[in-house]
From TrEMBL:
This is Carbamoyl phosphate synthase large subunit. The keyword Ligase applies. It catalyses: hydrogencarbonate + L-glutamine + 2 ATP + H2O = carbamoyl phosphate + L-glutamate + 2 ADP + phosphate + 2 H(+); hydrogencarbonate + NH4(+) + 2 ATP = carbamoyl phosphate + 2 ADP + phosphate + 2 H(+). Belongs to the CarB family. One of its GO terms (biological process) is L-arginine biosynthetic process. The lineage of its organism: Bacteria, Pseudomonadati, Pseudomonadota, Betaproteobacteria, Neisseriales. Pfam families: CPSase_L_D2. PROSITE patterns: ATP_GRASP (PS50975), CPSASE_1 (PS00866), CPSASE_2 (PS00867).
């Protein structure tokens, strides 16, 4: 989907065992964010800077198998992480807010403070984040809530993660009066069964 929309993401791979992880890590390059394929709250997520550190992670931090792979993502040094929550009724997408993390990208959102509104992102970058969020919501056919995590590095926006569900940041997002289209927000909320 990201390729079809022309959106960027850090180079990434999936590995099912230690040997495969080491080969794929060399393809991507270090440093890497390594995590189990399904994790809540950032548990077992780690930044590794070398093959030795990756080997240690694979042997000590997780149990990897065909059914439980690890995700390897190139770590974007000095990037700004951003959380966006939106709601859609399938026709309109309303963005609640753009939240800038205080810590750099790579620190799990549950462990990072955030600022709303963003304190260092230009209007141009914020507009691009809005555009990308809406494009993904439409492409996924989202009806309900969606959360997107972005990283901004040197003025380039990267998609880190898309979750077609509520996230822990929803309570922090501005409510419809702060939205550009309260009528659309109300309609989106009413689309829930």
């Amino acid at each position: 989907m990201l390729n079809d929309l022309g959106l960027r993401q850090p180079p990434n791979r999936i590995a099912h065992n230690e040997e495969e992880a080491l080969v794929k890590a060399e393809e991507i390059g270090y440093p890497l964010v390594v995590r189990p394929s399904y994790v809540l709250g950032g548990r077992a997520m780690q930044i590794v800077h070398s093959a030795e550190a990756l080997q240690k992670y694979m042997r000590e931090a997780v149990q990897v198998s065909e059914d439980s792979p690890v995700l390897l993502d190139f770590f974007l040094n000095n990037a700004i992480e951003v959380d966006v929550d939106c709601v859609s009724d399938g026709k309109d997408v309303v963005i609640g807010g753009i939240m800038q993390h205080v810590e750099q990208a790579g620190i799990h959102s549950g462990d990072s403070g955030c600022s709303l509104p963003p304190y260092s992102l230009s209007e141009e970058i914020q507009d691009e984040i809005r555009r990308q969020t809406k494009a993904m919501a439409y492409a996924l056919g989202v009806v309900g809530l969606m959360n997107v995590q972005f990283a901004v590095q040197d003025g380039v926006v990267f998609v880190l993660e898309v979750n077609p569900r509520a996230s822990r940041t929803v309570p922090l997002s501005p409510k419809p009066p702060a939205c550009r289209s309260p009528k659309s927000a109300r309609a989106a909320w009413q689309a829930f069964p």
